[in-house]
# Entry
Amino acid sequence: MLQILIYGAVSSAIYAMLAAGFTLIFGVARILNLAHGSFYALGAYAAYVLTSVLNFPLFIAAPLAVLFVALFGVVMERFLVRPLRSSQLAVLMITLAVSLAVEQALFIIFGSEYRNVPSFVAEKLTIGGVDIGGQRLLALVMGVLVLLLLWLFIQRTRLGAAILAVSQDPEAAQYMGIPTNRIFSIVMAISAGTAALAGVLVSPFLTVQPTMGLLPMVKAFAIVIVGGLGSIPGSIIASLILGYSETIVAYLISTSWTELVSLVAVVITLMIRPSGILGRRAAF
Amino acid sequence: MKRISWIDIAGGIVVVAILALAPVFAASNYLTGVLTVCVIYGIWASSWDFMSGLTGRENFGHSLFIGAGAYTAGFMATIWFTNPWYSIPASIVVAVTFSLIVGFPTLRLRGPYFALAMLSASAILQRLCLIFWEYTGGEEGLYGLDPMMRSPLHYYWFVLAILVVTVIILTLLARSHWGLLLRAIRGDEATCQAAGINVTFYKIAALAISAAFAGLGGALYAHYQLQVSPPLFSVVTSITVIIMCYVGGIGSIYGAAIAAILLTLLTEMLRGFGEYRLWIYTLTLILILFFLPNGMVAPFWRRLTERFR
# Structure
């Protein structure tokens, strides 16, 4: 029972980090970013290269990896997405093309075999009789911390207020003197950075391979639909629901059935409350 | 409605004639095989274009219907050992059923729900295929399907005939009152609804028609490859089809079919690049998105024949 509680919390935290970034960039810039999963994969690979190839210590490698991916996201938004923003289909196609290009590039450079990243924390902890790897616990703590910081940033700072304003009405925000395009870049950096951080944190205990981004991204879609497109609190609640239901299903039935959970959750949400748990037109 | 001009019909006949005769003159089994795949991609692309090109609802999981059709053919052949011809109606029924399951909850809604739901559904079905490997054969897939016809050339002609019929049916539908409604939905959904048009019904029906042809194409593919495997469900399959429609010119149907044939030939030619192949392909796509946002085939044909209309 306690095991379900802890492991469910860990996967919820990781899903929440992915989904929050995805929903943020949609809520603010109306960009449906299908390359979100490749940020996650790139984060994990950057951590692998920095630690295992260049022998950087972990606590330096992790922020470097996150910075690198955030920069990648900003460049993608500026040069590939922004010129095509007038057409929704073009944006979907270009982000998808980027995700395919990243996946193929990873295949060409690293091959399809699994890569290992050393753990940040090696020792195992025992909480109430449940063994849990320190790395998983770190992922949980970092996830909660990052989401808390993100919430404080958006609710309490001037820049956060600007982001909120753009998400509610980009044109009005522009008239008020908010540099909308710069806000898009900042939000893209945050979104890519959180996805990359999730990738870095899971890299020691999950397999690092070129296609690793796809399934978490599909889960992030599901969470965002269940929680309401554009709502960060909604996606956190939905991450908890999905993370725990998957863990419970894995314990009670079998791990094979966990993939179905998100599909069923999406179908039920779209049938009874299509806007999601906390979805509104405005973002937050 | 605008009449179909004679130059379009003439162009169509010339293209079909070239396609039908190319393997006879080249007399190579390799070319026949490649062209068969090209033509099947043509069926998939034109079926995507009918739903998504006309209504503007991008279907990012067309591989769901393709895979469903192909696996239906696979199950029929390996479990019930039925005559290969029964795969055709069965795969259509299964693909349409899937389209209704996904379409009903998602197409009622505006926004990107449909695209996301289709993408997730196809990705999850691919996972399920791997998880329930006892029934689906896992990574290996299902083997030992029977070909529908002995001669590869005859099968190629059969598939080509189906492509021609598909394009004709979908073009006629697209030019009918029905297609006009679908285009109107693309333009302004709220106004259509206000005018008393049952928008949801038309979108779901369009998706079901699209799925029927995609499933049919899936079954034809299965009986050509004589095996089915999970990559059929993959996102890459859907993307390949969408790229073809984009290059063909969204909403033109014939453009999608021709672009599918050209791009499949291009991928065949790029085979020499080995692992760089998909990379070159996606880079080409990015360039096309930037410089030819309206696609290539249909706009090119329109400009070429402008003087004869």
Q: What stands out?
A: Chain A touches chain B at residues 32, 34, 80, 83-84, 87-90, 92-94, 96-98, 100-101, 104-105, 107-108, 214-215, 218, 221-222, 224-225, 229, 256, 259-260, 262-263, 266-267, 270-271, 274 (CB under 8 Å). DSSP finds eleven helices and two strands in chain A. The radius of gyration of chain A is 18 Å. The beta strands of chain A are 124-127, 130-133.
